[in-house]
Protein backbone atom coordinates (compact mmCIF):
# COMPACT_ATOMS: atom_id res chain seq x y z
CA UNK A 1 0.00 0.00 0.00
CA UNK A 2 1.23 3.51 -0.86
CA UNK A 3 2.66 4.99 2.34
CA UNK A 4 4.36 8.12 1.02
CA UNK A 5 2.56 11.29 0.06
CA UNK A 6 2.72 13.67 3.01
CA UNK A 7 5.37 15.93 4.47
CA UNK A 8 6.06 13.73 7.51
CA UNK A 9 6.69 10.48 5.62
CA UNK A 10 8.76 12.31 3.01
CA UNK A 11 10.89 14.00 5.68
CA UNK A 12 11.40 10.69 7.49
CA UNK A 13 12.76 8.88 4.43
CA UNK A 14 14.91 11.84 3.40
CA UNK A 15 16.41 12.11 6.89
CA UNK A 16 16.98 8.36 7.10
CA UNK A 17 19.22 8.45 4.04
CA UNK A 18 20.69 11.89 4.65
CA UNK A 19 19.46 13.01 1.25
CA UNK A 20 20.10 16.59 0.12
CA UNK A 21 18.06 18.22 -2.63
CA UNK A 22 20.03 19.12 -5.74
CA UNK A 23 19.00 22.52 -7.02
CA UNK A 24 20.63 21.83 -10.40
CA UNK A 25 18.20 18.93 -10.90
CA UNK A 26 15.15 20.99 -9.96
CA UNK A 27 14.02 18.50 -7.32
CA UNK A 28 10.67 19.17 -5.65
CA UNK A 29 8.82 16.21 -4.10
CA UNK A 30 5.03 16.16 -3.92
CA UNK A 31 3.71 15.98 -0.36
CA UNK A 32 -0.03 16.20 -0.98
CA UNK A 33 -2.00 12.96 -1.29
CA UNK A 34 -4.99 14.71 -2.88
CA UNK A 35 -2.81 16.00 -5.74
CA UNK A 36 -1.18 12.60 -6.16
CA UNK A 37 -4.60 11.00 -6.54
CA UNK A 38 -5.55 13.67 -9.08
CA UNK A 39 -2.49 12.86 -11.19
CA UNK A 40 -3.23 9.13 -11.22
CA UNK A 41 -6.86 9.83 -12.10
CA UNK A 42 -5.84 12.24 -14.87
CA UNK A 43 -3.46 9.68 -16.36
CA UNK A 44 -6.39 7.29 -16.96
CA UNK A 45 -4.31 4.25 -16.05
CA UNK A 46 -5.90 0.82 -16.42
CA UNK A 47 -4.79 -2.43 -14.74
CA UNK A 48 -3.40 -3.72 -18.05
CA UNK A 49 -1.38 -0.58 -18.84
CA UNK A 50 2.35 -0.08 -18.83
CA UNK A 51 3.73 3.18 -17.39
CA UNK A 52 7.00 5.00 -17.84
CA UNK A 53 7.58 7.41 -14.97
CA UNK A 54 10.15 10.14 -15.45
CA UNK A 55 11.67 11.46 -12.22
CA UNK A 56 10.21 9.18 -9.53
CA UNK A 57 12.17 10.94 -6.76
CA UNK A 58 11.69 8.88 -3.59
CA UNK A 59 8.88 6.82 -5.14
CA UNK A 60 5.84 8.70 -3.86
CA UNK A 61 3.98 8.67 -7.18
CA UNK A 62 5.58 5.38 -8.20
CA UNK A 63 3.84 3.52 -5.39
CA UNK A 64 0.46 4.66 -6.66
CA UNK A 65 1.36 3.88 -10.26
CA UNK A 66 2.42 0.36 -9.29
CA UNK A 67 -0.95 -0.18 -7.66
CA UNK A 68 -2.84 1.11 -10.70
CA UNK A 69 -0.87 -0.37 -13.64
CA UNK A 70 0.40 -3.74 -14.82
CA UNK A 71 4.04 -2.60 -14.88
CA UNK A 72 6.00 0.59 -14.18
CA UNK A 73 9.43 1.56 -15.47
CA UNK A 74 10.80 4.44 -13.36
CA UNK A 75 13.67 6.49 -14.81
CA UNK A 76 15.62 8.51 -12.25
CA UNK A 77 18.70 10.58 -13.08
CA UNK A 78 19.93 11.04 -9.47
CA UNK A 79 21.88 7.96 -8.36
CA UNK A 80 21.56 9.05 -4.71
CA UNK A 81 17.83 8.31 -4.94
CA UNK A 82 18.24 4.73 -6.17
CA UNK A 83 18.79 3.17 -2.68
CA UNK A 84 15.73 5.08 -1.44
CA UNK A 85 13.65 3.79 -4.34
CA UNK A 86 14.87 0.26 -3.67
CA UNK A 87 13.38 0.57 -0.18
CA UNK A 88 10.17 2.47 -0.88
CA UNK A 89 9.27 0.20 -3.81
CA UNK A 90 10.46 -3.08 -2.24
CA UNK A 91 6.95 -4.49 -1.83
CA UNK A 92 6.10 -4.06 -5.52
CA UNK A 93 7.14 -6.74 -8.01
CA UNK A 94 5.85 -4.85 -11.06
CA UNK A 95 8.41 -2.04 -11.15
CA UNK A 96 11.80 -1.61 -12.77
CA UNK A 97 14.08 1.24 -11.68
CA UNK A 98 16.54 2.67 -14.20
CA UNK A 99 19.23 5.17 -13.19
CA UNK A 100 19.55 7.28 -16.34
CA UNK A 101 19.02 10.65 -17.99
CA UNK A 102 15.73 10.36 -19.90
CA UNK A 103 17.08 12.64 -22.63
CA UNK A 104 19.78 10.04 -23.32
CA UNK A 105 17.55 6.98 -22.91
CA UNK A 106 16.09 4.86 -25.70
CA UNK A 107 12.46 4.90 -24.57
CA UNK A 108 11.29 2.97 -27.60
CA UNK A 109 13.62 0.12 -26.63
CA UNK A 110 12.29 0.19 -23.06
CA UNK A 111 8.72 -0.04 -24.35
CA UNK A 112 9.64 -2.90 -26.66
CA UNK A 113 11.53 -4.89 -24.03
CA UNK A 114 9.64 -4.06 -20.82
CA UNK A 115 6.10 -3.05 -21.80
CA UNK A 116 5.39 -5.04 -24.93
CA UNK A 117 1.71 -5.52 -25.77
CA UNK A 118 0.58 -2.91 -23.23
CA UNK A 119 -1.09 0.45 -23.70
CA UNK A 120 1.79 2.66 -22.58
CA UNK A 121 1.40 5.95 -20.73
CA UNK A 122 4.04 8.37 -19.48
CA UNK A 123 3.78 10.16 -16.14
CA UNK A 124 6.30 12.78 -15.04
CA UNK A 125 7.01 15.50 -12.52
CA UNK A 126 9.43 17.48 -14.68
CA UNK A 127 12.17 19.83 -13.49
CA UNK A 128 11.13 23.29 -14.65
CA UNK A 129 14.46 24.09 -16.28
CA UNK A 130 14.17 21.22 -18.78
CA UNK A 131 10.40 20.84 -19.19
CA UNK A 132 10.12 22.05 -22.78
CA UNK A 133 13.04 19.99 -24.18
CA UNK A 134 11.69 16.81 -22.56
CA UNK A 135 8.11 17.41 -23.70
CA UNK A 136 9.19 18.17 -27.27
CA UNK A 137 11.50 15.15 -27.34
CA UNK A 138 8.66 12.88 -26.19
CA UNK A 139 6.29 14.27 -28.80
CA UNK A 140 8.66 14.48 -31.76
CA UNK A 141 9.98 10.96 -31.25
CA UNK A 142 6.44 9.65 -31.90
CA UNK A 143 6.73 6.98 -29.23
CA UNK A 144 4.02 4.30 -29.15
CA UNK A 145 2.29 5.87 -26.14
CA UNK A 146 -1.32 6.97 -25.77
CA UNK A 147 -0.90 9.77 -23.22
CA UNK A 148 1.63 11.87 -21.34
CA UNK A 149 0.55 13.24 -17.96
CA UNK A 150 2.99 15.78 -16.58
CA UNK A 151 3.48 18.21 -13.74
CA UNK A 152 4.85 21.45 -15.18
CA UNK A 153 5.28 25.06 -14.19
CA UNK A 154 1.91 26.79 -14.41
CA UNK A 155 3.29 29.28 -16.91
CA UNK A 156 4.35 26.44 -19.23
CA UNK A 157 0.88 24.86 -18.99
CA UNK A 158 -0.62 28.21 -20.00
CA UNK A 159 1.71 28.39 -23.00
CA UNK A 160 0.75 24.86 -24.09
CA UNK A 161 -2.95 25.75 -24.11
CA UNK A 162 -2.63 29.29 -25.48
CA UNK A 163 -4.60 30.43 -28.53
CA UNK A 164 -3.59 32.89 -31.27
CA UNK A 165 -3.13 36.51 -30.28
CA UNK A 166 -2.34 36.04 -26.60
CA UNK A 167 1.00 36.77 -24.95
CA UNK A 168 1.45 33.10 -23.99
CA UNK A 169 0.88 31.86 -27.55
CA UNK A 170 4.02 30.67 -29.28
CA UNK A 171 5.92 27.84 -30.93
CA UNK A 172 5.36 25.52 -27.93
CA UNK A 173 1.59 26.07 -28.13
CA UNK A 174 1.49 25.09 -31.78
CA UNK A 175 3.82 22.11 -31.44
CA UNK A 176 1.93 20.58 -28.51
CA UNK A 177 -1.45 21.18 -30.15
CA UNK A 178 -0.19 19.56 -33.37
CA UNK A 179 0.71 16.31 -31.62
CA UNK A 180 -1.86 16.08 -28.83
CA UNK A 181 -5.18 17.03 -27.25
CA UNK A 182 -4.56 18.97 -24.03
CA UNK A 183 -6.44 18.60 -20.77
CA UNK A 184 -5.73 20.67 -17.65
CA UNK A 185 -6.27 18.31 -14.73
CA UNK A 186 -5.28 20.54 -11.80
CA UNK A 187 -3.43 23.61 -10.65
CA UNK A 188 -1.04 22.90 -7.77
CA UNK A 189 0.18 25.56 -5.31
CA UNK A 190 3.80 25.66 -4.07
CA UNK A 191 2.89 24.38 -0.58
CA UNK A 192 2.20 20.93 -2.04
CA UNK A 193 5.93 20.37 -2.57
CA UNK A 194 9.06 19.83 -0.53
CA UNK A 195 10.97 22.08 -0.86
CA UNK A 196 8.49 24.69 -1.98
CA UNK A 197 9.10 26.08 -5.47
CA UNK A 198 8.70 29.80 -6.04
CA UNK A 199 5.95 29.33 -8.62
CA UNK A 200 2.72 27.42 -9.03
CA UNK A 201 2.43 24.21 -11.03
CA UNK A 202 -0.15 22.49 -13.21
CA UNK A 203 -0.98 18.91 -14.11
CA UNK A 204 -1.52 18.49 -17.86
CA UNK A 205 -2.55 15.40 -19.80
CA UNK A 206 -1.49 15.23 -23.43
CA UNK A 207 -3.57 12.62 -25.25
CA UNK A 208 -1.48 11.74 -28.29
CA UNK A 209 -3.23 12.10 -31.62
CA UNK A 210 -3.06 9.09 -33.94
CA UNK A 211 -2.75 11.63 -36.73
CA UNK A 212 -2.54 15.45 -36.67
CA UNK A 213 -5.66 17.56 -37.11
CA UNK A 214 -4.01 19.27 -40.09
CA UNK A 215 -2.55 17.88 -43.31
CA UNK A 216 1.02 18.98 -43.89
CA UNK A 217 3.10 18.10 -46.94
CA UNK A 218 6.37 19.07 -45.24
CA UNK A 219 6.24 18.97 -41.45
CA UNK A 220 9.79 20.33 -41.07
CA UNK A 221 8.93 23.35 -43.21
CA UNK A 222 5.82 24.10 -41.17
CA UNK A 223 7.77 24.10 -37.91
CA UNK A 224 10.53 26.20 -39.49
CA UNK A 225 7.90 28.79 -40.43
CA UNK A 226 6.54 28.67 -36.88
CA UNK A 227 10.01 29.16 -35.39
CA UNK A 228 10.64 32.05 -37.76
CA UNK A 229 7.35 33.70 -36.86
CA UNK A 230 8.01 33.63 -33.13
CA UNK A 231 11.75 34.30 -33.34
CA UNK A 232 10.78 37.90 -34.10
CA UNK A 233 7.16 37.89 -33.00
CA UNK A 234 6.69 41.68 -33.10
CA UNK A 235 7.53 41.79 -36.81
CA UNK A 236 5.12 40.97 -39.60
CA UNK A 237 5.18 37.36 -40.72
CA UNK A 238 6.61 38.45 -44.08
CA UNK A 239 9.58 40.18 -42.44
CA UNK A 240 10.09 37.44 -39.85
CA UNK A 241 10.26 34.68 -42.46
CA UNK A 242 12.43 36.54 -44.98
CA UNK A 243 14.91 37.45 -42.22
CA UNK A 244 15.11 33.90 -40.80
CA UNK A 245 18.38 32.12 -41.54
CA UNK A 246 16.76 28.70 -41.74
CA UNK A 247 14.48 29.63 -44.68
CA UNK A 248 15.16 30.84 -48.21
CA UNK A 249 12.03 32.61 -49.42
CA UNK A 250 11.77 36.06 -50.94
CA UNK A 251 9.40 38.71 -49.70
CA UNK A 252 7.36 38.19 -52.86
CA UNK A 253 7.11 34.43 -52.19
CA UNK A 254 5.59 34.98 -48.76
CA UNK A 255 3.30 37.82 -49.86
CA UNK A 256 1.93 35.78 -52.75
CA UNK A 257 1.41 32.73 -50.53
CA UNK A 258 -0.49 34.80 -47.96
CA UNK A 259 -2.58 36.48 -50.66
CA UNK A 260 -3.54 33.05 -52.02
CA UNK A 261 -4.80 32.15 -48.54
CA UNK A 262 -6.65 35.47 -48.18
CA UNK A 263 -4.36 36.51 -45.31
CA UNK A 264 -3.09 40.07 -44.97
CA UNK A 265 0.58 40.64 -45.76
CA UNK A 266 0.70 42.81 -42.62
CA UNK A 267 -0.26 39.99 -40.27
CA UNK A 268 2.05 38.86 -37.49
CA UNK A 269 2.78 35.20 -36.95
CA UNK A 270 1.24 35.29 -33.47
CA UNK A 271 -2.17 35.81 -35.10
CA UNK A 272 -2.07 32.60 -37.18
CA UNK A 273 -3.52 29.34 -35.92
CA UNK A 274 -2.17 25.86 -36.59
CA UNK A 275 -4.41 25.33 -39.63
CA UNK A 276 -3.13 28.56 -41.22
CA UNK A 277 0.52 27.66 -40.61
CA UNK A 278 -0.14 24.26 -42.19
CA UNK A 279 -1.83 25.84 -45.19
CA UNK A 280 1.02 28.34 -45.64
CA UNK A 281 3.63 25.61 -45.54
CA UNK A 282 1.67 23.58 -48.09
CA UNK A 283 1.55 26.54 -50.48
CA UNK A 284 5.29 27.11 -50.08
CA UNK A 285 6.25 23.44 -50.46
Pick out its properties.
alpha/beta, single chain, 18% strand, 7-stranded mixed β-sheet, 285 residues
Topology:
Blueprint: H1 7-17, E1 29-30, H2 33-43, E2 50-54, H3 60-68, E3 71-76, H4 82-88, E4 95-99, H5 107-114, E5 120-125, H6 131-140, E6 147-153, H7 154-161, H8 171-179, E7 180-188, E8 193-194, E9 201-208, H9 219-231, H10 237-242, H11 251-260, H12 274-284
Parallel strand pairs: 2-3, 2-5, 3-4, 5-6
Antiparallel strand pairs: 1-8, 6-9, 7-9
Helix pairs in contact: 6-8, 9-12
In short:
This protein has 285 residues and is α/β, with parallel strands linked by helices. The chain is built from 12 helices and 9 strands. Helix 6 (131-140) runs parallel beside helix 8 and helix 9 (219-231) packs across helix 12.
Q: How much is the radius of gyration in Å?
A: 21 Å
β content, as a range?
Answer: 15-25%
Would you tell me the overall average pLDDT? 94
Look at the helices and sheets and give the structural class. alpha/beta
How widely separated are the two ends? 56 Å
Total helical elements: 12
Main beta sheet strand tally, sense and closure: 7 strands, mixed
Report on this model:
This protein is α/β, with parallel strands linked by helices and 285 residues long. The chain contains 12 helices and 9 strands. It has helices at 7-17, 33-43, 60-68, 82-88, 107-114, 131-140, 154-161, 171-179, 219-231, 237-242, 251-260, 274-284; strands at residues 29-30, 50-54, 71-76, 95-99, 120-125, 147-153, 180-188, 193-194, 201-208. The strands form 2 sheets. It has a 7-stranded mixed sheet, sandwiched between helices. The protein has a two-stranded antiparallel sheet with strand order 1-8. Helix 4 (82-88) links the parallel strand 3 and strand 4. Helix 9 (219-231) packs across helix 12. It is elongated and about 65 Å long.
